[in-house]
Structures are given as structure tokens and as C-alpha cells.
């Protein structure tokens, strides 16, 4: 995923994890086929191996984006966890229809995991593949229900979306359907790349939408940049030198802003105010991409879809961003915040 919790509360106000108004929800597992026969299943994750004894009916999400994967698998969790954006049920527009009218309880981890609230939901599976769950958290959660944590070999908040999809699908007995979700996204990207060979000749940079305390947070190659590199773009090199630690964004100060210039740039602007702040900051206006109408500015929903990095959100990204990338590559991208 994209918005690193290492800079939550630093990059923008909207990065602060905050609680959202919540309603009690109930599970609505309408996945095709009877999966009960595949259980029990043993799932290996970063903090151990977990046995899921039977088909889960009450799934709690303690991570930030896993609800997307569950919903696309046909499972409505009884609880989600608010990341940012305060969307209804912590579910963004590209996934709302899959709730089928259900209203999951919305948890918050702004003050740590809400163990008592989770216990009251009587879960039979807890999913936290994008959660930063600690060993202590895992021990406590495991007393409440079988718990799946981050992908083995991944970091707290940056694991391959394919791996997260696989581990979640396995835990709910829908391994084959998980592979179908992955294949659909990978095929869509391959088709888009084939249709746009011109992208392979271009460099690209992805950045958050506005500076915070004089710092612009920009994504080095491989850190949430696959939505561009999978289309053929060559990510701007050298930005990892400005990341304070592995798995975090490059911190670009005003005097180094020229380092992020590229043939095409994507700024995850989330509001007109954010767009204006970016345009006024440092020498952004002098960058070749900005002056040459090769910079893209997203609205809140598209920014959220890029940050979520799930199969479902990526299909939304392809639908909404690809036309803008075509314009940017041709020097025809408008220098304005997207109109509603």
C-alpha cells in the first residue's frame, strides 16, 4: 500500500488514523460454491501458522485495506478498520456495491487495536495482512479467533497485493477465486501496457499531493509504484537515497524538488486546497512535467484507489487513470484539480 503509517500524522492531516462512526454489521458470505469441505486450512503468515477450523462466517478486519479483497471474494466482514477518508463502513466507492446493504462495524487503531470491541463481535476469523500487528497483538487476537497477520517476508504495511490476496483467499477457503482476482488485474495491466508501447520510453514519478512541514513525500521505485511500472513506465531513479529507512517514502525538501522531475508525474492530490498548496510550494511550477502539461492531479477517490493497492482498487485505477496518462504522455494534461 501507499500511505506509509511511518509518516501518518506527518504527511497530511488526512493521514492521521481516526475513528469513524460505526454500525453493527453481520456476515453475508455469498461466495459461489460450498467451501466448507476445504476446512480445516492452515495458513502461514509472518507471525506463525494459523489453523482455520471451519468456514468463517464472522470475519473481522484489523488491517487497513483487506475489506476490499474479502468483498470481492463475496464475504462482507462484520468489522472493518478505518484508515483515512471516513468512507461509509470504511469502504470506498469502488467497493460499496459489494456490501449488499450491510453495515460493518468500523474499528479504529488510532489508539491501538480495540480488543474489547473485537471480542464483542464474536469473530471466527481475524484478518490483518496490512495491519502492523505485533507479536503481543497477535497473541491477544488469537485468543479471540484464528488470526492471520502480515505476509511472511513482507513489512508491516508494504506487502505485495498478490501475496495478500492469496493469503486471505486461502484463509476463507477460496484459494481458486483469489487466483482469479489476481489474474484479472495482471491481465488488465498487460493489455494496457501492450496498447501503449509509448509508455516504455517515458520516466514517471509518483508523489503525495502536497508537502508537510516543508517536505514532499515521494515514492521510490518499487514502493507503491507498480501501477505505473506495470504499464511500462520507468520509475525515476535515485529517490530511495532520500528515504530515511527501507519501506518508507523519499523525503524531498524544497531545494531538491528538481530530483523528482520526469516525463510523466502523478500527484495524489485529494482536494482543491491540496492542489493549490502543491502549486505554490518551492519550484514545483518550474518542473518540466508541470510546465509541459505532463503532470496528473488526482481527486480524492482516485488517490485512495492508488493507495489501497487491492485487486478491486487497481481495476478502478486503470479505468480512471489510464485516460489521464494518455493525455500526460502527449503533453495535454490539464494543470488543475479534477472537476467533479
Q: Any overview of this molecule?
A:
The chain is α/β, with parallel strands linked by helices and 340 residues long. It has 2 domains: 5-184, Rossmann fold, CATH 3.40.50.1980; 196-329, Rossmann fold, CATH 3.40.50. Helices cover 29% and strands 14% of the residues. The chain has 10 helices and 13 strands. The strands form 5 sheets. The chain has a 4-stranded parallel sheet with strand order 10-8-12-13. Strands 3-6-7 form a 3-stranded parallel sheet. A two-stranded antiparallel sheet has the order 1-2. Helix 5 runs parallel beside helix 10. The chain is globular and about 60 Å long. The two termini are 26 Å apart. The model is unreliable at 1-33 (pLDDT under 50).
Average pLDDT rating: 90
Count of runs of 4 or more consecutive helical residues: 10
Percent helix range: 25-40%
Instruction: Tell me the strand order in the biggest sheet.
Output: 10-8-12-13
Tell me the name of the CATH class of the largest domain: Alpha Beta
Count of spatially separate domains? 2
Q: What is the number of beta strands?
A: 13
**Low-confidence segments:** 1-33
CATH fold description of the largest domain:
Rossmann fold
The CATH fourth-level homologous superfamily of the largest domain: Nitrogenase molybdenum iron protein domain
Structural class: alpha/beta
Straight-line N-to-C gap: 26 Å
CA-based gyration radius: 20 Å
Largest sheet: 4 strands, parallel
Amino acid at each position: 500500500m501507499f500511505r506509509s503509517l511511518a509518516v501518518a500524522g506527518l504527511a497530511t492531516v488526512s493521514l492521521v488514523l481516526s475513528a469513524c462512526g460505526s454500525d453493527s454489521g453481520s456476515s453475508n458470505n455469498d461466495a459461489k460454491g460450498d467451501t466448507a469441505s476445504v476446512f480445516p486450512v492452515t495458513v502461514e503468515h509472518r507471525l506463525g501458522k494459523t489453523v482455520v477450523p471451519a468456514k468463517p462466517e464472522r470475519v473481522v478486519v484489523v488491517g487497513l485495506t483487506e475489506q476490499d479483497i474479502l468483498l470481492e471474494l463475496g464475504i462482507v466482514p462484520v468489522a472493518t478498520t478505518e484508515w483515512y477518508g471516513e468512507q461509509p463502513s470504511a469502504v470506498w466507492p469502488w467497493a460499496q456495491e459489494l456490501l449488499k446493504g450491510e453495515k460493518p462495524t468500523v474499528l479504529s487503531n488510532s489508539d491501538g487495536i480495540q480488543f474489547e470491541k473485537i471480542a464483542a463481535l464474536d469473530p471466527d476469523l481475524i484478518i490483518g495482512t496490512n495491519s502492523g500487528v505485533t507479536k503481543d497483538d497477535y497473541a491477544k487476537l488469537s485468543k479471540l479467533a484464528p488470526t492471520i497477520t502480515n505476509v511472511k517476508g513482507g513489512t508491516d504495511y508494504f506487502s505485495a497485493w498478490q501475496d495478500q490476496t492469496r493469503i486471505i483467499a486461502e484463509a476463507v477457503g477460496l484459494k481458486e477465486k483469489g487466483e482469479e482476482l489476481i489474474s484479472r488485474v495482471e491481465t488488465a495491466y498487460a493489455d494496457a501496457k501492450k496498447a501503449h508501447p509509448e509508455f516504455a520510453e517515458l520516466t514517471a514519478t509518483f508523489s503525495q499531493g502536497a508537502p508537510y512541514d516543508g517536505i514532499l513525500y515521494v515514492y521510490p521505485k518499487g514502493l507503491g509504484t507498480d501501477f505505473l511500472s506495470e504499464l511500462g513506465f520507468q520509475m525515476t531513479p535515485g529517490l530511495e537515497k532520500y528515504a530515511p529507512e527501507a519501506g518508507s517514502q523519499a523525503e524531498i525538501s524544497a531545494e531538491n524538488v528538481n530530483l523528482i522531475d520526469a516525463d510523466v508525474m502523478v500527484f495524489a492530490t485529494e482536494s482543491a486546497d491540496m492542489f493549490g498548496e502543491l502549486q505554490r510550494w518551492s519550484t514545483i511550477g518550474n518542473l518540466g512535467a508541470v510546465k509541459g502539461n505532463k503532470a496528473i492531479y488526482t481527486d480524492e477517490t482516485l488517490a485512495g484507489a492508488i493507495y489501497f493497492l487491492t485487486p478491486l482498487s487497481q481495476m478502478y485505477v486503470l479505468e480512471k487513470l489510464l485516460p489521464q496518462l494518455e493525455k500526460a504522455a502527449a503533453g495535454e494534461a490539464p494543470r488543475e484539480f479534477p472537476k467533479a
